[in-house]
Amino acid sequence: MLTIKPITEEFAICQVEDYSQVNLENPFVFTGATDEEKSLVCPIELIPENALTVDKHWSVFRIEGVLDFSLIGILSKISSLLAEHDIGIFAISTYNTDYILTKTADFQRALQVLKEAKYTILES
Q1: Full-model pTM
Q2: Which secondary structure element, helix H or strand E, spans residue 77, and what is its range?
């Protein structure tokens, strides 16, 4: 089974006008841009003033290690397990691994669900 590492900061999911007020060198700053919007996920203390909408109180865990692109169903299994327990997620994939956010109110319960499913949960 995979190993899960909780991240200690609390996060926000934002829409922003642009990234001019975002320091991309800060850890745990995730951006996404499309033809319709610019999104930002960051620790709450890093929310920029030009945020258009902000949804606070998200907690995050990382799937530890570097995941090979040929691995199939990692997010699907985790999201299905949590969905069975009425826990919604917001997923972010990087080149190396995946990050899963849940609302902070559901976070400990999410970790417990994963632990019961035999995922290893590291201490935060």
Answers
A1: 0.90
A2: helix 74-84
